[in-house]
Amino acid sequence: MVRAIHFPNLPFELLMPPSSNNVKDIALKTVPSASKTEIKRVLQSVYGFEVEKVRTLNMQGKRKYRGNVLVAKPNYKKAYVTLKNPLSISPALYHPINSIEDETGSMK
């Protein structure tokens, strides 16, 4: 018997937490069709987090007029996840361009 492992097609974008040490609550940006149970299962199975609670918000994409044309960004879902065990996050995750510039500067 062959077992198939299905990875979900659920993209996440990590939003900046208030501090990078002992983070217990994280905010994620994902697709609007994601449910709380899907988000929890993906974080537990794929990323190995122990999730205590998931809260979600449906967010409207921003709309702007550029001349006579309406330009709209896509809608998204924001998920606030409470973890059972706190984790520390590297600040380089949020500013990858700055960390690359620092590395190239130190190589000179």
From TrEMBL:
Coiled coil: none annotated. It comes from Trema orientale (Charcoal tree). Belongs to the universal ribosomal protein uL23 family. Keywords: Ribonucleoprotein, Ribosomal protein. This is Large ribosomal subunit protein uL23m. One of its GO terms (cellular component) is mitochondrial large ribosomal subunit. InterPro entries: Nucleotide-bd_a/b_plait_sf (IPR012677), Ribosomal_uL23-like (IPR013025), Ribosomal_uL23/eL15/eS24_sf (IPR012678). The keyword Glycoprotein does not apply. The keyword Ribosomal protein applies.
